[in-house]
TrEMBL record:
Keywords (A to Z) from UniProt: Apoplast, Cell wall, Cell wall biogenesis/degradation, Disulfide bond, Glycosidase, Hydrolase, Secreted, Transferase
Coiled-coil annotated residue ranges, if any: none
Active-site residues (renumbered): E77 (nucleophile), E81 (proton donor)
Bias (Low complexity): 162-172
GO molecular function term, any single one: xyloglucan:xyloglucosyl transferase activity
Descriptive protein name: Xyloglucan endotransglucosylase/hydrolase
Gene3D superfamilies reported in the protein's UniProt record: 2.60.120.200
Region Disordered, annotated ranges: 146-175
Function summary: Catalyzes xyloglucan endohydrolysis (XEH) and/or endotransglycosylation (XET). Cleaves and religates xyloglucan polymers, an essential constituent of the primary cell wall, and thereby participates in cell wall construction of growing tissues.
Assigned EC number: 2.4.1.207
Amino acid sequence: MACKFDDVVQPSWANDHVLYEDDLLKLRLDSSSGGGFASKNRFLYGKATADLKLVPGDSAGVVTAFYLSSAGEKHNEFDFEFLGNVTGEPYLVQTNLYIDGVGNREQRIDLWFDPTADFHTYAVLWNPSQVVFLVDDTPIRVYDNKNASATKPKGHHRHPNATTTQAQTASAFPSPQPMAVYSSIWNADDWATRGGLVKTDWSHAPFVATFRDVRVEGCAWAANASDSDAGEVARCSGSSWGKEGRYWWKEKDMQELSVHQSHQLVWARAHHLVYDYCVDTDRFPVQPPECAGR
């Protein structure tokens, strides 16, 4: 039966654990397997959004992910990973970026609501200037293209940590590689909850994450084009309009946060940030270049 998800995503592994019920898509984890889906198209720049209700109850050891990724060893990847917990303890949301195949850019926040009680919206906005992770339209993390910001006019819209220094200019930003959108649920009790101390309790299986909607707005990569097709890079990077409509995600007001969004980001990080790789001197005695100014 056709459903609203069919134009956007398809099961990518363990198809029998990817379930369609009425207007919902459910990913199921039991002791035999998890499951996942992938977008039917790849895109270069845009916004990927999921309306998602996370696994309720005792979800310790269970990870649900919603992420964007390109292909190959030198891939780029932007991750939301929702780390389950024992009943009554808060979910943690881990974000991470892989750039040219290298990750280790983890940040974790707790949420200001119960993500298992209702649907909430999680999104990644990606353009040549920034990657923004949003929860219910509140930015929780921004990864700037410092090289681009060096040439951008400085105004009151720049959020904290955006001053440009020699070190920042040397920091990496994801090269233009087409990405697909993915989601999966799996057992990660070797690390997900309290560093792996709390294991998955299979008596509570199946664990189910429920999607009400998945939206991908972006410059769709030609299906027959290679990952490095210069024409597609030029079209998606340089154009302001295409067959998908107006490329709003690249317009000037998308190149940096608004004043209101900047205030939201400061609030989210002040009240809900529980881990930031940028200040983890045990892991990084030398601060990563993109963290300069923290």
